[in-house]
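Deliverable D2.4 — example input (structure tokens):
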């Protein structure tokens, strides 16, 4: 029996020998990470610097872009190091740090998308009361809750997981996650599994049910409203819906893979899909919102023109 004081590192078996294309893989992933950081930082700066964008919708977008930076930074540096390493190991403290980052990223993403749907609901369904409901104080409280709630929910899970007695140190993935560590435990993990399921599904399904409710209300208003109302709904809700669907696709596979045996799925496909929500979403959001949101697009164009 191996306890956590003896397990000083974990071995990540999701990696495989890429041979002659190792350097190419490293360059492609590094370029992807640089693009993600650059695009998200650009939009954060654009929103913060331009007073015309100091509106609730853009404040929530700014929080979303910060989360994309946070989530991608929790994965990419580790991924780049592992690609160039002959032995794919990660120290226990860094593994638990990555677990914390990945779980917080997923929860903040869903909660942020939920408060964005609430903002769209107020703007489209209650336009006259919008400024009364969406005050600066309320915006601050909603953004703070989006970030602090996942931290408080994650703390007990790490507290229960870190002292577990482990019978091994092999994780069949390219990054660390809670369930992979819990599966290595020698002792009973019923409490951890129940708390993990409760925390996961209360956050995800709570956010999704709220999003569904707000969009049902928006659809009702669109069907009975004017063409201008429908146009406003389409222009502001399309990127939001696309973001929800894109992230939910990746997150759903990751949850299924962590809870069920997916060995029948080809290894390359498993790796790609497990990385999807951590790599594609941070890339997808700045591109989608940067192109679709007229104010952001025009300011970015003017910046590029001035640089030239």
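Example output (designed residues):
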């Amino acid at each position: 029996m191996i306890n956590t004081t003896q397990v000083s590192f974990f071995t990540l078996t999701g990696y495989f020998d890429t041979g002659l294309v190792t350097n190419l893989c490293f360059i492609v992933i590094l370029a992807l990470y640089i693009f993600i950081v650059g695009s998200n930082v650009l939009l954060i700066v654009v929103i913060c610097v331009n007073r015309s964008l100091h509106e609730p919708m853009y404040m929530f977008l700014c929080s979303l872009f910060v989360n994309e930076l946070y989530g991608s930074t929790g994965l990419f540096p580790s991924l780049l190091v592992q690609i160039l390493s002959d032995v794919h190991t990660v120290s226990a403290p860094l593994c638990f740090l990555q677990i914390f980052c990945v779980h917080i990223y997923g929860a903040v993403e869903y909660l942020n998308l939920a408060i964005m749907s609430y903002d769209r609901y107020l703007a489209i369904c209650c336009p006259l009361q919008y400024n009364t409901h969406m005050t600066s104080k309320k915006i601050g409280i909603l953004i703070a809750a989006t970030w602090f709630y996942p931290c408080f929910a994650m703390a007990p899970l790490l507290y229960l997981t870190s002292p577990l007695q482990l019978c091994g140190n092999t994780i069949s993935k390219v990054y660390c996650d809670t369930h992979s560590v819990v599966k290595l435990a020698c002792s009973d993990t019923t409490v951890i599994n129940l708390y993990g399921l409760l925390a996961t599904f209360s956050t995800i399904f709570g956010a999704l049910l709220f999003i569904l409710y707000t969009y049902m209300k928006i659809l009702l208003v669109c069907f009975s409203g004017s063409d201008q109302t429908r146009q406003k709904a389409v222009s502001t809700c399309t990127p939001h819906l696309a973001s929800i669907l894109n992230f939910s696709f990746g997150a759903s596979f990751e949850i299924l893979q962590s809870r069920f045996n997916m060995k029948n799925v080809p290894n390359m496909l498993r790796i790609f899909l497990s990385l999807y929500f951590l790599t594609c979403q941070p890339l997808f959001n700045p591109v989608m919102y940067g192109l679709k949101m007229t104010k952001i697009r025009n300011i970015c164009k003017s910046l590029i023109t001035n640089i030239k």
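The chain is about 75% helix and 5% strand.
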